Amino acid sequence: MEVGTICQRPVFTIRPYELVSRAAQLMAAHQVGYLVVVEFEPYARPVGVLSERDIVVRVLARGLDPKAVCVREVMTADPTLVREADFVEAALLKMREAGVGRLPVVNDHRELVGLLTREDALRLSADDGPEDRDVMDSGWQIEDVIPV
């Protein structure tokens, strides 16, 4: 199955020049823990990602003021992306190789169209036949920590 058929839409985004405090407000308002950082050229193109953990580790734990730090200073730049036409199994392998649990989904023009989570992809693979479970049997755990 293709990523575009199961990815989450819409995706919550933020611009790199916005303050981390604004990112936290967006996360709280939409009950999400992850934002895709985009530039418009003229469409939304992912340039980074920002997670709750990024805010805690890279801002709060260092004693920085979220009202004085821009997203670009603490985001994970150049995130691993997946195309909406890619197969879910290939996306799972990309996640494993990159050590991440979420991938921004882009179209052929690198425009943001969705977000694929490891949980969504594994749920789909678990419903498929045994040949699709090879990715799951590779020792990769849902509880794996996403590195900063």
Distance between the termini: 30 Å
The CATH architecture assignment turns out to be Roll
**What top-tier CATH class fits best?**
Alpha Beta
Categorize the overall geometry.
globular
- The average pLDDT value, as a whole number, equals 86
CATH topology: CBS-domain
Number of strands: 7
Question: Quaternary status of these chains?
Answer: single chain
Low-confidence stretches: 130-148
The DSSP helix count reads 5
Cα-atom radius of gyration: 16 Å
Side-by-side strand order of the widest sheet: 1-2-3-4
User: How are helices and strands ordered from N to C?
Assistant: EHEEHHEEHEEH
Structural class assignment? alpha/beta
Summarize the structure.
With about 150 residues, the protein is α/β, with parallel strands linked by helices.
What does this structure look like?
- The protein has helices spanning 20-30, 52-58, 71-74, 88-98, 118-127; strands spanning 13-14, 34-40, 44-51, 76-77, 82-83, 102-106, 112-117.
- By secondary structure, it is of the alpha/beta class.
- The chain has one domain (3-138): CBS-domain (Roll), CATH 3.10.580.
- Strands 1-2-3-4 form a 4-stranded mixed sheet. The protein has a 3-stranded mixed sheet with strand order 5-6-7.
- Strand 1, helix 1 and strand 2 form a beta-alpha-beta unit.
- The protein starts with 12 loop residues before the first strand and ends in a 21-residue tail after the last helix.
- The model is unreliable at 130-148 (pLDDT under 50).
Attribute tags:
single chain, alpha/beta, CBS-domain
